[in-house]
Design goal:
alpha+beta, about 375 residues, EC 2.7.1.6, transferase, eight-stranded mixed β-sheet, four-stranded antiparallel β-sheet, Galactokinase, Ribosomal Protein S5, domain 2, 10 helices
Length: about 375
């Protein structure tokens, strides 16, 4: 049974009727470009085949009734404009989008995007709901319309869920194309689809879920964002994308934060050039450099992530790095396909030696964005 079929079945079981429709949106893995979306930077993600699906039927009593295969049920009055936990991601989209004529809904959710793994399960939920509401309420869903949906989802996560994310996840979930990476420009809002097919080059993007869940609402992510904003102010630029160098910053912490952002943006530019030329194999050193920068300058890695990255590279990965907001979650490793099993065994053994949680693995293929299913 597909995830969309699971959402439909859950809806019927919980609400005793069929939904008006079912929509899904993918998780994502960012090849490179971490913690730069809110600094006017560049990011290079792909959408995952794993999705979150929502089955929806509208109500007329201004209530939102939410059911999930993974979380407790929630019923709330939309007039309260208050929600906690996973419901905040759904209700926040409703309040941020404010679709015309919307008077509530029954929503059933199913997902195979790992939660807490740094693979954007929250944005997959938000964008599937946003697309459902847009289609049900007659909002545009072309490229510009999807930009507006992404902005509403960012507001939902910032204002209602309390996570100060920058928009990478939501834009990826709404705009991704199969077989392509998505070069996102957060200075001008641009997006470029770049062909990305690791399989044809005998390569695999291996995702390592360390089993150490992360939470973007625990304060560390917000602290990094405030440090970037302070560095930007002190350098007298609009964004760190405009800063020629972090050297004028006397504060060593702010200097390191700014150095990560400026060097990471340069790495994304190099990675995009390699992909345009079909040189995917040469991404490895850029991934390694990105991880070192996230670990040492931005200080968002952790023992579990470092262990996974180091073990993957030692076992023959072309390059590896942590992905997502950090403080737990997942890493990626660019591997020759015939070496994937050996790399998985090496990463698992390294975690066991340090008494860390046993990692799990998935193979990332560039997939499509949010859609009706």
């Amino acid at each position: 049974m597909t995830v969309c079929e699971q959402a439909r079945a859950l809806f019927t079981a919980q609400f005793g009727t069929d939904p008006e429709g079912c929509w899904c949106a993918p998780g994502r893995v960012n090849l490179i470009g971490e913690h730069v979306d809110y600094a006017g930077g560049l990011c290079l993600p792909i959408a995952l085949p794993q999705v979150t699906a929502v089955a929806v039927r509208r109500r007329t009593d201004n209530r939102l009734c939410l059911r999930s295969s993974g979380f407790d049920p929630v019923d709330l009055d939309l007039a309260d404009r208050r929600a906690d936990g996973w419901a905040a991601y759904v209700a926040g989209v409703v309040w941020s989008l404010d679709p015309p004529g919307f008077t509530g809904a029954d929503i059933a959710v199913a997902s195979d995007v790992p939660v807490g793994a740094g693979l954007s399960s929250s944005a997959a939920l938000e964008t599937s709901v946003a697309l459902a509401l847009a289609e049900l309420c007659g909002l545009p869903t072309d490229t510009a319309g999807r930009d507006r949906l992404a902005a509403a989802c960012v507001r939902a996560e910032n204002d209602y869920a309390g996570a100060p994310t920058g928009g990478l996840d939501q834009r990826t979930a709404l705009h991704a194309r199969p077989g392509h990476a998505l070069l996102l420009d957060f200075a001008d809002g641009g997006a470029e689809h770049i062909p990305f097919d690791a399989t044809t080059q005998g390569l695999t993007v291996l995702v390592v879920d360390t089993g150490t869940g992360h939470r973007l609402v625990d304060g560390q992510y917000g602290q990094r964002r405030r440090e970037v904003e302070e560095a930007t102010r002190l350098l007298g630029v609009t964004t760190l994308r405009d800063a020629p160098s972090p050297d004028p910053l006397a504060d060593p912490v702010l200097h390191r934060r700014a150095r990560h952002v400026t060097t990471e943006i340069a790495r994304v530019q190099d990675a995009a050039r390699l992909l345009r030329d079909g040189h995917l194999r040469e991404l490895g050193p850029l991934l390694d450099a990105s991880h070192r920068s996230l670990r040492d300058d931005f200080e968002v890695s952790c023992l579990e992530l470092d262990t996974a990255v180091d073990a993957a590279v030692a076992a023959g990965a072309l390059g590896a790095r942590m992905v997502g907001g950090g403080f737990g979650g997942s890493a990626i490793a660019l591997c020759e396909t015939q070496r994937v099993a050996d790399i998985e065994r090496a990463v698992t053994a390294a975690a066991a030696r340090r008494d860390l949680p046993a990692p799990t693995f998935l193979r990332a293929t560039a997939s499509g964005g949010a859609r009706r299913c």
